[in-house]
Specification:
This protein is mostly helical. The protein has helices at 12-27, 36-50, 59-71, 79-94, 103-106, 113-136, 138-149.
């Protein structure tokens, strides 16, 4: 378990690797070639070109995304769609913009616009109290961060 005063630097790339391993372990088949980090960077770069002024990917965003990916129950959905849906909800909750264009997220997953929004609503319904808790409770944030680091 990683404690705050450990010498391991908990930077964004370390958290991304941990998230990648979590998703692979919980959502992917053995021969899955899906890359969480490539997908996040691709969406973020597209938004940087068209919508937002700076990257939204940082350690807080990754921990928030981990919360959603680890608690959302989305039946019969591939890992790419799970990550896109949870990333969209993450950006709309913690991002600097008031809204985000859906195209960047839907283009990277395997579902229709209606199915995507249905999944977003499901995530919000399932995780709303946890999102509020994460925003208000630093100890809960630290716990989630430590939990995520178990996948490193």
């Amino acid at each position: 378990m990683v404690e705050r005063n450990d010498s391991i630097e908990l930077n964004c790339s370390t958290l991304l690797r941990s998230l990648e391993r979590f998703v692979r372990r919980h959502y992917c088949d053995r021969d899955c070639s899906f890359s969480v980090s490539r997908q996040l960077i691709s969406i973020d770069e597209e938004l940087n070109r068209t919508w937002q002024k700076c990257s939204e990917i940082d350690d807080k965003t990754i921990v928030f995304l981990y919360l959603l990916v680890s608690h959302a129950i989305l039946d019969y959905i591939d890992p790419r769609t799970v990550v896109c849906v949870c990333l969209y909800v993450t950006y709309t909750y913690v991002g600097t913009e008031t809204s985000y264009p859906l195209r960047a997220f839907i283009r990277n997953c395997n579902c229709t616009r209606e199915r995507f929004f249905g999944c977003c609503l499901s995530v919000v319904q399932q995780c709303s109290s946890l999102m509020i808790r994460l925003n208000a409770d630093r100890c809960y944030y630290d716990k989630l961060r430590r939990d995520l680091m178990h996948y490193l």
